[in-house]
Design a protein that fits this description.
Blueprint lengths: L8 E10 L7 E7 L4 E5 L5 E6 L14 E2 L18 E7 L4 E6 L5 E5 L7 E7 L5 E5 L5 H28 L9
Antiparallel strand pairs: 1-6, 1-10, 2-3, 2-9, 3-4, 4-5, 6-7, 7-8
Length: 179
């Protein structure tokens, strides 16, 4: 993804559209712009992982989980078997160097402390199966990206309306369509 702001506090959200067996076996978080490290959350297990992306390509680069996100009762925050349709919010505080997560609008779950403050960060999603799919949600993207996506959708909508209206007028219809 594009670089995220390098100061302040911000968040981005994504929806898990589909994961193999609804298991949530994906990784969601941030990586540095150079592609050498990632700090991610696994919805399938509730575990946080530090991944060294600069390792030998034959190695997965994953380290043992550093901790498990837990709810107020101490239960692991896992989406195993119920991941599809869930929304994960990734919250980054550049000044404090922290990374937190929120699942389906629930409470903020503290994640990492000590993100490198000098490195530019990017959204990071790792998917394990060919049919896994997520959607970045515009609300929560940096304003420039959200505006760009909205403008692209508006243009696509206008194009569809023009095509349909041209076909209707070619048939001699006086009605028009608005999508």
């Amino acid at each position: 993804g594009s670089e995220l702001p390098n100061r302040g506090r911000y968040a981005f959200r994504l929806r898990i559209d589909h994961t193999h067996r609804n298991a949530g076996a994906i990784l969601v978080g941030v990586c540095d712009s150079g592609g050498t490290f990632a700090r991610v959350f696994s919805p399938a297990t509730g575990c946080l992982h530090c991944i060294n992306l600069g390792q030998d390509p034959s190695s997965s680069g994953a380290q043992a989980p550093t901790q498990t996100l837990s709810d107020a009762q101490g239960r692991p925050c896992t989406l195993q078997g119920q991941a599809d349709g869930s929304v994960i919010e990734v919250i980054v505080d550049v000044k404090l160097g922290t990374l937190a997560f929120r699942i389906d609008g629930g409470p903020v779950l503290p994640g990492y402390i000590g993100l490198p403050k000098k490195d530019a960060l990017r959204p990071c999603v790792g998917m394990h199966h060919p049919m896994d799919q997520v959607t970045m949600l515009c609300k929560g993207l940096p304003k420039a990206q959200g505006a760009k996506l909205r403008e692209q959708r508006r243009k696509q909508q206008q194009h569809i309306e023009q095509q349909v209206n041209m076909r209707l007028s070619a048939r001699g219809s006086t009605s028009s369509v608005r999508v």
